[in-house]
Here is the input.
Amino acid sequence: MDFAPTLASAQEAHHAGQLAAWCQIWLRGEGANVGLADPLRERDDDVYVLAEVDLGDIYPITGPEEDFDWPEPPEQFEQQVEGMVRSLRAGWDAPPLFVHMHTLRLVDGSHRREALLRTGSRTYWAVMWCRRPPFNGRGQQVSLDA
Here is the structure.
């Protein structure tokens, strides 16, 4: 499967059950977010879902103000966002955002989110993940010997 840095490629990977692999390739390549890729790679009990989210319902952790978890100089943030706005208007198939399912924290894609908002989008696709809960209750034991 070809893992291009696009939403269409992420959707294909999701349908093929390869979304986790797509995420690693994006985050270690053009996405340049090894700080997210490494912890995701260390676990094999994560559940990945590609879903359309309301951009107002997710919480970016990077931005131009000092109160963000990872503040960025305003001129640098603005330069990246404006470049993405131009790309979106030219037809860029932007990769999905990365949102932690339980907290709705936007951990990758703050610039993309802002560019999408500026071009009039109110929703966009996001890779959402969470830890698989431990098995409990009847019928949830998996037997590999069968």
Q: What stands out?
A: DSSP finds five helices and seven strands in the chain. The helical segments are 7-15, 19-28, 34-42, 74-89, 110-118.
